[in-house]
Design brief:
globular; Arc Repressor Mutant, subunit A; mainly alpha
């Protein structure tokens, strides 16, 4: 299975999210982080991600007669590059967007199932309609990328909580004839 097929599945994408930040986790720990997903499903998808090279074994230990593996995400492998995205069909884009939305919904429902405080957690799901030229759009994307990438190297620590940020951007209308 190629990287695109591996990543375009809601459970596998949630596992990739959970493994971010240089974490090493066992499948049992992943099951605890994804309590709404059956253990058999988590084990199956961890196996697929490991077979596909997105997860690597980062140690083993015997637990009650079984071998328990710790996995680490191969961050460089867990991306869909610009060339692949550019050559994707419209159906591929539909599938990718549907997977992203299904993953986002599952993650948000899991958050709500923990009996959280959305106001204290600064939860947001705002949408803004912006009028932008191609140059303004490129500049905004560059600025956003700079802010996000500067924090992607943060590793887990006692004062940090893993957050899911899902920027979605697409033209909501066709450009006017003549570029007006």
């Amino acid at each position: 299975m190629d990287t695109v097929d591996l990543l375009l599945h809601p459970v596998r994408l949630r596992i990739v999210h959970a493994m971010s930040g240089g974490r090493t986790l066992t499948t049992s720990q992943l099951c605890a982080l994804l309590p709404d997903v059956s253990k058999a499903t988590v084990y199956r998808h961890v196996g697929l991600l490991a077979d596909g090279g997105l997860l690597v074994t980062d140690g083993e230990q015997r637990v009650r007669g079984a071998v328990e593996r710790r996995y680490r995400l191969q961050r460089a492998r867990a991306v869909i590059d610009a060339d692949t995205a550019a050559s994707a069909s419209l159906e591929d884009h539909r599938r990718g967007f549907a997977t992203a939305m299904a993953t986002l919904l599952a993650e948000f429902n899991a958050y709500l199932d923990r009996d959280p405080d959305p106001a204290a957690d600064l939860v947001g799901y705002r949408q803004h309609a912006l009028w932008l030229s191609q140059a303004e759009l490129a500049e905004m994307i560059s600025e956003m990328r700079e802010v996000i990438v500067s924090r992607m190297g943060n590793e887990p620590s006692p004062e940090r909580t893993r957050h899911l940020l899902s920027p979605i951007l697409f033209p909501a209308e066709e450009p006017p004839a003549g570029g007006q």
